[in-house]
Amino acid sequence: MDRDKYDKQLMRWVKNHYWDSLEKDKDLILRHLRTFAVSEESDRIKELEAEVERLKAILYEYQL
Q: What range does the domain containing 17 cover?
């Protein structure tokens, strides 16, 4: 499986499993991302962490 497709599936999994608790469980989500990421030291993990931050911002927006 190519990395982009894998990362998209990973982010879909995060959204499906953690959307409602994104704010309070951010650290847990990042641990899961690191666990399932192709390579811990890859730049991709930084991109995935940025995506979690983006999702967190969206969550804040909808709570207003």
A: 3-63
Task: Render 1-64 in DSSP notation, one character per residue.
Answer: --HHHHHHHHHHHHHHHHGGGTTTTHHHHHHHHHHHSS-TTSHHHHHHHHHHHHHHHHHHHHH-
pLDDT of the chain, 64 residues: tens digit per residue: 576 777 677 777 767 766 666 666 667 767 776 666 555 556 676 777 787 778 777 777 766 4
Torsion angle (degrees, nearest 10) of CA 17, 21, 25, 26: 80
Total domains present in the chain? 1
> 8, 45 in Cβ contact below 8 A?
no
